[in-house]
């Protein structure tokens, strides 16, 4: 009784304990994705006899004698299923990793099911989009023109715009067809025949929070069938490095080994087993015997700072490892005072003091960390190359780090990223590549590692938890007299991104306000817990939660409208943007300024929203319900500091189209489209004529990577420069062909108009060849000078004081993204940021117990927003034109996340009178805090 | 995910075949969701597959409803609109769908997961436990040596993930008595997120004999039940005292899905709502089902407030 897959009987039979998902992938159906492998996310949805099921929890043996349909079988004879067409039309995806499962589910819906998507899509999680575009795709778009998103206009959704394919157009993602047909190739979607002899690597991880490894006995493991090798600290290079990836590796402390003889958190790598199958590798890991010498552990940064606390990296030299004070567990610190805060507080009429806390959260990119490494042999001895295919935001930096760790020249390593299934900062690290590289170099066979969802939660990285003591003062006339913060960040067992996150967090969050007196004390502290790392917002979201909450309290304290208070104190063009240095950052300028517009857009939208509810008679929620509004603003530098480099090579092809080789990675952020549009604009053609190849270290010289929202403003700038240069070359060639002066030639519609003669690009190509001129150009950009971008978020909420239930009545965000290259995509970035931030604001939390163990290690314990949780937000763009960014564009992928949590806390404060200073603000905590407040001061509760 | 330690799948319904390292395989949705992690101490070796048991999923008689342990959630969801119960005056059927919708798992998972599997997983938020406890269901358990026994489902579950099954014992079926199905019912549920895992789930039932039964699940580590005879129906104060007495503080569950203090206060709140609904004389009508999923929404609970684009707005800005 064979399993029939998409109409063909499978030749293979499943293993006894195999789930249907892995069986289908083994048969080459790579469109079946692993998001959670536990039945929660739906990325693996297939049909069995027409019924949708989660194939990861479907015993494969049960499918024997039944017919299975995967995404590959949804379309017939090359004709897309109507659901696929709609997802393509509405661009109902970003990274695309959840898309096949989403479509396989939606394809089974009748009209009744479509009418209740919160219920019927709750088994399909998407981390990128915020679900709006998915709703439009499943139900059919109701806003046909998505093209309009100019100043103050709502950013539309809707179908593919039939526009110029250049700047300001809703050009669809080039990978769209591959995404909706399940043929887009993510990291591990490599057919077995292309990697003969592929081995699998599994990790034995530490059960102890702090211990020295006394001995590891691998004898029994090595005797198991299928086990090929076991790697321990004895096999690993001595070199210390940081898993964090930056343009300058010196930005992070060297405190990590590939495999260490000291484990510093529960879940740290102890040994790596390489075997012929995942099952054999798991069995090998089970058979390893490890003897540990337990060491004292410390789990909170406050305790880690106490005298006598165990020094987690105490054996390291601070200067060489770039750790501020290893004996005190302090990785990095900053202490600064501008003006005199004491004098500022003396001048204040109202002072707010509170301690704000942000929790550990996980990125939950749908594709878990994974990579494959192999050695490509060369005929010339010593010229073999290490090949790595990884789910990475930073392939060029991965190459650099592997070269450093394994002592190889960079040109002997090639790192490639396929399509990446979401990043959010989590893939700005080397967490898997070093392992497979080590194994492949030793064994000379391809080696693959794929993390489980539980490994993601327990042993990769999280957002840095911050404890932020704020003291801020304001005078009755509304001016801010002093701001003081004392910040302790918890970087976990390793210092990857600890300095950067701490510094960046304390930057724009404070610099956005004019205030003569600012004091900052901040420390990033080691603890024996899962390491923190880069996370969307990079420290800003944590600090902005505290600062924007405090600004709200100051406004309330002096009896001023909170938005008026912000308008009075926020920076305006010409104001110095200051936080921890008396002088502004040299290369940060107001390339454009739209903060004032953003504030106005949000204020107006909130007023309209209130009126809508009132007019519809929906503003009375009944007994026990209170309502309120709140908002928050945020600023972000458009490029990370200290250099962010990009290189593009653009080539005219014989058929008159272009090839763009760029370094930056695509993980749903949409930069591929942006690059094509920027190049098309400069070359007077359409985006569909520019094919972008990317994220391969062999393609271009260097690219710092897709982080710090640099995909558009840095890599895009390099592409634009290359395109502009190529346009000039094309014009010169065409001028010669036509025999007219260059000044009389102009590029238009895929050709050059030279006086009365039109020279098509195809002819330009031929002429260039004959002239011996290469019709190609390069562009480079170093990421400086930088500009600033802004986001303002507003909420109207209703809170049930009897249960703690929170309802979001209205969600509005205004973004200052400069000239918006692709409005639909940019709107998607904003919506996705809002959704992710709502999860963080309302319930997401990686919990660590008293023994240092992560207890929320599956998606059923770590709820990320589902369709039912996310309101449709109104998104507006300010009308600005940036002098620094490519064609006036600014960055817009991290920043929409940043103002959401404080805006929500401020709205809840406005509704209930209670300040929530710790995230997440879950319903149980809302209820209990209101109960406490009611008990202590029954009249304090402001009921609107 | 793959259960790589499984060496064989054996089709059987005979508990006599069970040995150490075995697990009963019903829908598989829980077993396969955990796989065989490297850290697990005694990994499973065999799955005893109930997939070919052929037990009728739902059997309706005057005595009530018999659910096979292998009855899928999808099959259960279909019961209230099935011919088998047509004409039966069983208000208790109104609990079936809200309980199914209390699963955090999607309707897709319902095609595989089973009533018995949910009861045997024995999590505080197991909605089949809520349903069965609320309707005084009894579980029939087959022993390894040909014996069988019955246990009220409310007592079957003994703690968070714990139950009264001895190794190898098999949950065969669950009987929902007609007397309970004939009672008037009320359903209340709260979760920390929309359509999320239940943090508190209460079911009330007023029987023909005038007695009131209140079943508390999700809020507590195991089901809690309060029974009041017709002659001793409580007022608000006595109900609150009874809840406090029957459910000690330590029985409230503490995990990411709700703080115990919140669960306790919500239990008191929902208990009083149910008491008032069932005991205060109201005209006959459908029971009140609370929960953010019920009644089914015609649209998203938070529909778009985005105004349609107009040139006027563009000018304004």
Overview of the molecule:
The complex is a heterodimer of chains A (944) and B (317). Chain A has 944 residues and is an alpha+beta fold. Chain A is 28% helix and 20% strand. Chain A is built from 27 helices and 31 strands. In chain A, strand 15, helix 13 (395-406) and strand 16 form a beta-alpha-beta unit. In chain A, helix 2 (82-90) packs antiparallel against helix 6 (132-139), helix 13 crosses helix 14 (433-443) and helix 18 (540-557) crosses helix 19 (562-569). Chain A is globular, with a radius of gyration of 28 Å. Chain B has 317 residues and is of the alpha+beta class. In chain B, 25% of the residues lie in helices and 23% in strands. Chain B is built from eleven helices and 14 strands. Chain B has helices at residues 31-34, 73-78, 96-101, 107-110, 115-121, 127-134, 153-156, 178-181, 236-246, 260-279, 311-316; strands at residues 8-11, 22-25, 46-49, 58-61, 64-68, 138-142, 148-152, 157-159, 162-163, 170-177, 184-191, 198-206, 212-217, 224-228. In chain B, the strands form four sheets. In chain B, strands 4-5-10-6-7 form a five-stranded antiparallel beta sheet. A four-stranded antiparallel beta sheet of chain B has the order 11-12-13-14, with helices on both faces. A three-stranded parallel beta sheet of chain B has the order 1-3-2, with no helix packed on it. In chain B, strand 2, helix 1 and strand 3 form a beta-alpha-beta unit. Classes of the chains: A alpha+beta (944), B alpha+beta (317). The interface between A and B is large, with 104 and 72 residues.
